[in-house]
Design goal:
8 helices; 5-stranded mixed sheet; alpha/beta; 15 strands; 10-stranded mixed sheet
């Protein structure tokens, strides 16, 4: 079995992927490439970040779910521990993934206000830069400094919020889609625009006492002001109340579409 996630080795995505399957793990440079590989059958599973407790949604992942038809089979919650890593105490640049830099923005402003920052494809890619260049520091997991002799940990737990955590979703081919699980995700493209539309889409869940854990709009790409809605609920697709609510939503979106990503359970992984 092959699981694909954001690389190179050592990223937080890599750590989350290890909780999905004990087979081979391969790496890609973008969330879109991960979801595409699963949809096209070149990987058995994919693991992508979808939400951070500080910086919010990872929009590239959400857009990939709307573009490619895959199944969500598991949620992985992992607390994020950021450390400042460098070859020495003096450096001119701090580099990491854009989300990691944003999650440590306040700490960097307080401790290194004059140092430039640069976003790269992943936290592990930033660590590679710091290993290669003594003038570059990286933000990554503190264990990244032990996987070699070039780096040392200058500071630990530098994230601005101690509760910092990231939500990952494991995706699989549509044949793996399940109706069993405590949470469900789907995408709605109503292909309509009128006052009260969003209220009408959400009322079927409120009427059946189904908790909405996330609702987010993303541009459809069809025209300005046209949106798809990503919706997560705390209920399984196997439940009659969920089926009834989705029947009502599908009727409202009869000029568009509703994509069921599936039901799944959640696991918290400490790393």
């Amino acid at each position: 079995m092959t699981t694909i996630t954001l690389g190179p080795a050592g990223t937080y995505s890599h750590r989350a992927a290890q909780a999905v399957d004990d087979g081979d793990i391969e790496f890609a440079e973008s969330m879109t490439a991960i979801v595409e590989a699963v949809a096209e059958g070149t990987a058995d599973y994919g693991v992508v970040p979808v939400e951070n407790s500080i910086e919010g949604s990872v929009t590239e992942s959400l857009d990939a779910f709307a573009e490619y038809d895959v199944a969500v089979v598991k949620e992985i919650i992992t607390p994020i521990r950021h450390a400042l890593l460098a070859q020495g105490d003096s450096f001119d640049l701090v580099t990491s993934h854009a989300q990691a830099l944003a999650q440590c923005r306040g700490w960097l402003d307080d401790h290194y206000p004059g140092v430039d920052v640069e976003a790269v494809a992943s936290t592990a890619r930033g660590v590679e830069r710091a290993r290669e260049d003594p003038s570059v520091a990286a933000i990554g997991h503190p264990e990244n400094a032990t996987n070699g002799t070039e780096l040392k940990v200058l500071a630990e737990d530098i994230q601005d919020q101690s509760s910092n955590a990231t939500r990952f979703l494991a995706v699989a081919p549509t044949s793996e889609r399940s109706e069993a699980g405590g949470k469900s995700s789907f995408i709605v493209y109503p292909n309509a625009d009128y006052p009260g539309l969003l209220l009408e889409l959400l009322e079927p869940f409120a009427d059946r006492d189904i908790n909405l854990t996330r609702v987010e709009s993303r541009p459809s790409g069809e025209r300005l002001g046209d949106y798809v809605f990503h919706i997560d609920i705390a209920a399984g697709l196997y439940e009659e109340r969920t089926q009834a609510a989705l029947d009502a939503v599908e009727e409202l979106a009869e000029n568009g579409w509703v994509r069921h990503l599936g039901s799944y359970d959640s696991e918290t992984v400490l790393n």
